[in-house]
Write a structure and sequence with these properties.
membrane, Sec16 Sec23-binding domain-containing protein, 2 domains, transport
Length: 214
């Protein structure tokens, strides 16, 4: 049944490519379906229904041809509209807050930009954005799907971002097979202390040598 429907849809798209009047009629039909679904808040999985109708509109407009960027634009526009409807009641409050304390991006906004970069295929930019804005969960997961070297670099950057006296940094660096920065610092301090002690001993010996014998 489903395969038959898809075959019929493909034939339909092939026909509309040769008949612009029929294509316009079908686009208007899909648009009416979208508006109808938007007015039915109780419709099961309404967002998915609207998204499918919009996908059909894109396919019809482009004569059955679609690329990854078209899908990305479609998903992002759907996401923006959903966020607008969900947070519409808080716009005034957010505006006052942003005016008073400056534009501070929430975690949702940061994740949204990360999502956009990924949907547009900008993996490196998305990874750098996630690390620069503290989205380490997303950064580590994405890096693990790129390659081992990228994952190791992200892990090292995450560990180095912790304070030097944090035991977690020492633990993570040890587990990564690297010499912990805290251990290196302690070793340097130890060497400096030993050097100071040696200098003091030498000074004492020199002073004793030049003292007159009673």
């Amino acid at each position: 049944m489903l395969q038959t429907w898809f075959r019929g849809l493909l034939r339909l798209l092939g026909y509309t490519a040769r008949a612009s009047s029929s294509k316009n009629y079908l686009i208007n039909f899909c648009s009416r379906k979208i508006k109808s679904a938007e007015k039915e808040p109780g419709l099961f999985d309404r967002d998915s229904v609207i998204l499918l109708w919009r996908l059909l509109v894109v396919l019809l407009k482009q004569n059955g041809s679609i690329v990854g960027q078209d899908i990305a634009e479609l998903l992002l526009s759907e996401r923006r509209e959903s966020n607008t409807s969900n947070h519409g009641g808080h716009d005034a409050e957010e505006t006052i807050t942003n005016t008073a304390s400056g534009p501070v991006k929430s975690e949702e906004e940061l994740t949204g930009h990360f999502r956009e970069l990924l949907l547009y295929g900008s993996t490196k930019e998305a990874l750098e954005w996630a690390m620069s804005h503290g989205l380490w969960g997303h950064a580590l997961f994405l890096a693990s799907k790129v390659d081992a070297r990228t994952y190791a670099n992200v892990m090292m950057r995450f560990a180095n971002g912790l304070t030097m006296n944090d035991p977690l940094q020492t633990l993570y660096q040890l587990m990564s097979g690297r010499q912990p920065a805290a251990v290196t610092l302690l070793f340097i301090i130890f060497i400096i202390i030993i050097f100071i002690i040696i200098i003091i001993i030498i000074i004492i010996i020199i002073i004793n040598c030049f003292q007159p014998v009673a």
